[in-house]
Design goal:
five-stranded antiparallel β-sheet, 448 residues, 11 helices, alpha+beta, 14 strands
């Protein structure tokens, strides 16, 4: 039986595949005349998947505890959201590219019966080298002999080439043999084929692949299968892993005064207040998306172990902080940022884990993933922005002016960015509604 979470995962997979198919459709035939039914069908499937995802998320915001798999779901969630927002730029660009590529003159040639032939340049009337930062090309006006049905005709055409053209050079020409009054295009064969429905050139294909690879690297590399428990074994081998027994004394929100990056903006974060018989009080901060209200209902009074390693970057308070994994009863874990009560109080350096100490087996502990209406609203806001952003792209497929195509593509991209910011504001307002530097009490949890 399919669970709600697996159904949501399939909807997200369908959304991603349909958007990837939309980009592929443009690359296969960028200059097809509107309306682009092939492109529109991909966007419609994406809209259906996004709508189903919104409904599933809304119905999943029930109280209780949901245990994720071995991977840290926060890293996965944030990574995929970042990848989707960044890669949306490629989708918007290529949908607009599909609208800008077709030229009326080229399709008039197709309607009249097109042909492509090689011919020689008869004369070069003018030639100008246009340079950019690293490359350049020649923009020339040349005379070529075009073999129409009524006989060859010398025609003046514009030519763009990497090398300076000379009389006698062979070029490809696109024309309508039976209609000498129509326009004539010259260039390389691939570019002329693209004008009449052929695939995009390799540079454009490489641009699409390169941008998606860059988005994946910046957002998902090392995150989409993040397993903090496996990282404990690597830290032990390097001799940097520390351990203390703890009890979760309370859960609340507080401003992280000693973040993992000195340049990070200090803001409210969910915080676990833990006590250790060997050290005293410890503070454990988790990502904003983890609802502290749901955590408090589950974790207060629970025993466990905290494992941490010191940060590698230079921080003025490096001795008092560390990247940490809290492994609680029933093999449940949280990943976050550990701090001592004060920057002047270092974490215990003598709590090193010996090399022969048995650690939890990688893959066995499961990430704690509490259900939360706030998290559901934030995720729903992002999906809703995707759904709204598909509308201007769908309008482009029916054929609009060049200016309108660019404006609609930009509007689509801004809608996605706005949706991500709206989701962040929802989470921020929820945290700001809780009393800082205090543990949540049952009254707060009931009102939430």
């Amino acid at each position: 039986m399919m669970t709600r979470s697996s159904a949501l995962a399939r909807c997200m997979a369908l959304l991603g595949l349909s958007l990837a198919a939309a980009v592929a459709v443009v690359l296969i035939q960028p200059a097809t005349r509107p309306p682009r039914w092939d492109l529109l069908s991909c966007l419609v499937v994406a809209a259906i998947a996004a709508s189903a995802g919104v409904l599933l998320i809304r119905h999943s915001a029930s109280c209780g505890r949901e245990t994720a798999n071995k991977h840290w779901w926060v890293e996965q969630r944030n990574g995929w959201v970042g990848f989707a927002v960044w890669s949306w730029a490629a989708l918007a660009f290529f949908v607009a590219y599909a609208a800008l590529s077709p030229t009326a003159a080229a399709w008039e040639i197709v309607d009249a019966g097109s042909a492509m032939r090689t011919t020689e340049i008869e004369k070069v009337l003018s030639s100008k080298y246009v340079s950019s930062q690293r490359t350049g090309h020649y923009t020339s006006t040349v005379l070529v002999s075009v073999p129409f049905d009524q006989g060859p005709r010398i025609t003046e055409v514009a030519l763009t080439s990497g090398d300076k053209p000379t009389p006698g050079d062979e070029v490809w020409v696109l024309f309508a043999p039976s209609s000498p009054d129509l326009a004539v295009f010259v260039g390389d064969r691939q570019s002329l084929e693209e004008e009449v429905g052929g695939r995009a050139d390799l540079w454009t294909v490489s641009l699409a692949i390169g941008w998606l690879a860059f988005c994946w690297f910046m957002n998902l590399f090392g995150r989409w299968r993040s397993d903090p428990v496996a990282g404990l074994h690597r830290s032990r081998q390097q001799g940097t892993l520390h351990e203390l027994p703890i009890v979760v004394a309370g859960v609340g929100v507080a401003i992280d005064e000693r973040p993992a990056s000195a340049s990070s903006r200090k803001h409210l974060k969910p915080r676990l207040r833990m006590t250790s018989t060997g050290f005293g009080e410890l503070y454990f901060y988790v990502d904003d998306i983890v609802d502290p209200v749901s955590l408090a209902q589950q974790l207060v009074g629970v025993h466990g172990q905290v494992f941490w390693r010191p940060p590698t970057r230079q921080l003025p308070y490096a001795d008092s902080v560390g990247y940490a994994v809290v492994i609680l009863d029933e093999q449940r874990y949280l990943w976050g940022w550990l701090e001592s009560p004060d920057a002047s109080v270092p974490l215990p350096g003598d709590a090193l884990v010996p090399s022969d100490r048995e650690l939890p087996i990688a893959g066995e502990p499961r990430a704690i993933r509490p259900t939360s209406r706030v998290v559901a609203k934030a995720n729903s806001a992002i999906l809703q922005s995707f759904l709204v952003a598909l509308v201007p792209l769908a309008v482009i497929t029916f054929g609009v002016s060049d200016v309108a195509a660019v404006a609609l593509a930009v509007a689509s991209g801004l809608t996605v960015v706005t949706g991500r910011r709206r989701a962040a504001r929802l989470v921020k307002r929820h945290l700001e509604g809780l009393e800082p530097d205090c543990d949540l009490d049952m009254g707060v949890m009931r009102r939430a």
